[in-house]
Protein: Rubredoxin
Organism: Isachenkonia alkalipeptolytica
Amino acid sequence: MQRYQCMACSYVYDPAVGDPDSGIDPGTSFADLPEDWVCPVCGVDKSMFEPEE
């Protein structure tokens, strides 16, 4: 699965790990994250993420 990086703080969302602190289970693709999900580090929304190279 594709990893996505936050352009504001460089946090990387890894679908293999998910975001357990936000209730996102491992195996959840970036596209399947809720629309109101925000970066767990800096709080920006999904629009500030780009696919990792």
Summary: Residues 11 and 41 are 7 Å apart (CA to CA). DSSP finds no helices and three strands in the chain. Strands lie at 4-6, 12-13, 49-51.
